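ingest -> validate -> predict -> emit
validate: passed (alphabet ok, no gaps, 216 aa)
predict: started
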Amino acid sequence: MDSTRFNTCWQYFNPPRRLQGATFNSYIPKCGSQQAALETCRTYSTDDIKTGRGLLLIGTYGTGKTHLTIATVRALMETAPDLFGVRNDSQTLYDPTREDYRGLYCSFFPVMELLDAWRPGSEAKKQRGEWLFHRAKTDDLVVLDDIGAEKATEWTEDRLYAVVDARYRMERATIFTTNSSEKDLLSNGYGKIVSRMFEMTDPVPVTGPDHRRKRA
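emit:
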C-alpha cells in the first residue's frame, strides 16, 4: 500500500481524532444488532462507491455508529489507495487543477460543525464555508455524522437539504449517522431530507448497549 498517498487522503477525510484508528477489528459488537451492522458495513466496504448507494446508520447513543463509518472508509481506502485522491485546499474550489492526487474524494463532516462553518463571519470563514459546502455536495463519498443533533430551523433544513439533494441528484455515495428516529426527524420538519436519505441509502439499525459506558 502507498502509505504516503493513504495518509494524505486520510488527512483530507479528516475523521475525529479520537476515532482516527477505528477499524472493523477494533469494533466489538455487544448484541445481534451491532453484529449485523458490522457485517453490513464490511460488505459495503467491498462495493463500488461510484454506484452512489450509501448507508444510514440509525440508533441510540454510544452504539458505535461513527466508529463503523470510519472503519468502512478506512477499509475502502486501504483496499485500493490508488483510487482515492485529495483536493489541496480551499483554493481548489477556484482552481480545480491544483491537486496532490487525482481520484475519489472522501470527506467526514459532523453536521453541527458543518452548519457552524456556514454561519456568517469573516471573509476567511466565508471562503472556508464555501469550500466545505462544495466538498459536502460533490465529494464522491461523504459521511454526514449525527444528523438531527442540530437545532432544527428553516435555515438548517435549507442548508442540509441543499447538500443532500445535490448528492442525490449527482448519485454521490453518502453515509449518514443519526441518534434520532425517523419519526423525530420528521417532527423536526426534515421531511424532504428524510425522503432523500431513505431513497439514497440502505438503513442499518445499530441498537444495544452503549460502548462508551464501562461496566462498574
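The beta strands are 54-59, 106-110, 141-145, 173-178, 201-206.
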